[in-house]
C-alpha cells in the first residue's frame, strides 16, 4: 500500500511503470504481486503527475515477508508553481541564491534567481 497524503491521480509502479497504479481519491494505491523476501523498487511516474503536484522523492523500496502487507508514505505535494518578485521590507531585491522555505513543514521550495 502506498500513501500520497490524500493526493489522487499519482501513478506508482515497478520497473518501467508498465503496470503503474493510480492513487484513489484518498491518495492510496494498492500494488499487487509484490514478491516475498525480494527487494522491489517502485517509482512515481513523474510524466503523469498533474501540473500542480510534485514529489521530492519519487522512489521507494520494499522487502516484504510472506503474507505481509507493506505501507509506504511518499512525499507528494500539491501547490501552484509561480514566478514571483521578492523584496525585503525596504523594497530591495532579495539576494541571489537565498532559499525560499514553506512555513508549515520548513521545506525548501525554491531559490531566488537572477533578475530578468
UniProtKB/TrEMBL annotation:
Pfam family, one: Usher
Source organism of this protein record: Serratia fonticola
GO BP term, example: pilus assembly
GO terms for cellular component: cell outer membrane
Example of a GO MF term: fimbrial usher porin activity
Name the UniProt record assigns to this protein: Outer membrane usher protein papC
Origin superkingdom: Bacteria
InterPro entries in UniProt: Fimb_usher (IPR000015), FimD_plug_dom (IPR042186), PapC-like_C_sf (IPR043142)
Amino acid at each position: 500500500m502506498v500513501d500520497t497524503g490524500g493526493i489522487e491521480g499519482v501513478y506508482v509502479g515497478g520497473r518501467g511503470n508498465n503496470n503503474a497504479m493510480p492513487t484513489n481519491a484518498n491518495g492510496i494505491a494498492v500494488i499487487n504481486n509484490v514478491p516475498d523476501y525480494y527487494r522491489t523498487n517502485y517509482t512515481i511516474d513523474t510524466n503523469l503527475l498533474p501540473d500542480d503536484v510534485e514529489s521530492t522523492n519519487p522512489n521507494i523500496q520494499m522487502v516484504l515477508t510472506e503474507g505481509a502487507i507493506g505501507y509506504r508514505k511518499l512525499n507528494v505535494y500539491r501547490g501552484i508553481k509561480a514566478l514571483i518578485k521578492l523584496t525585503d521590507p525596504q523594497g530591495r531585491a532579495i539576494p541571489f541564491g537565498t532559499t525560499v522555505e514553506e512555513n508549515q513543514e520548513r521545506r525548501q521550495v525554491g531559490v531566488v534567481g537572477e533578475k530578468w
